[in-house]
Design goal:
Layout (H helix, E strand, L loop, with lengths): L5 E5 L9 H14 L2 E7 L5 H18 L2 E5 L7 H8 L3 E5 L4 H7 L5 E5 L4 H9 L4 E4 L11 H14 L4 E5 L5 H5 L5 E4 L1 H4 L4 H14 L1
Parallel strand pairs: 1-2, 1-8, 2-3, 3-4, 4-5, 5-6, 6-7, 7-8
Amino acid sequence: MSSNPRLALLGPHSLDADGIDAFAAALGAACAAGDVAAVILRLASTDERGLTARVKQIAAITQEVGAALVVACPGFTGDLVSVATRGGADGVHVDKPRDLKDLRDRLRDGRILGAGGIETKHGAMEAGEAGIDYLMFGGLYPDGVAPDPATVLARAEWWAQIFETPCVAVAVTADEIAPLAATGAEFVGLESGLWLNDPGAVERAQRGFQERVA
């Protein structure tokens, strides 16, 4: 694969009102350091009004740099599509999804539907058939445990070689970035621990992509 992947930045799990200002500042610095294609905002569940306010705050940053913003909120029982839309986000992200067809029907007019947390190839293929816009492999579990990096690498390579639906291959450590970029994945995701306190990680990752194809 001769082209470079683009970067997606993952926010920390269960981001709440107490942490949103610091997150916004860190995201602004990271976006200023290089080309960020997408941000996956993983919010703590609260009422729709509170969630919408958090989304609006982050959407103001992503819109400024042309990055897509997708919203995840595990455990939220309200209308996440409405929250994302009213907050100015570009779509939603769901882990271990069960209702992709319904979400796909509701997310029209270019709105993004992303999925992750799928543990089997069969489940991944079913998600692709449901019309998702991207499939994410890897990323920390909500309890902070990291998935097996070899499995993430193998799944991203398998998907990128066979399927047209883009995938996001997530690096939890810096050493994982280059191998994931070599899989052919359209996007390499950076877990929050890589960039939240180090905006230069964005520039270093992109420099590594360029050196890979030089």
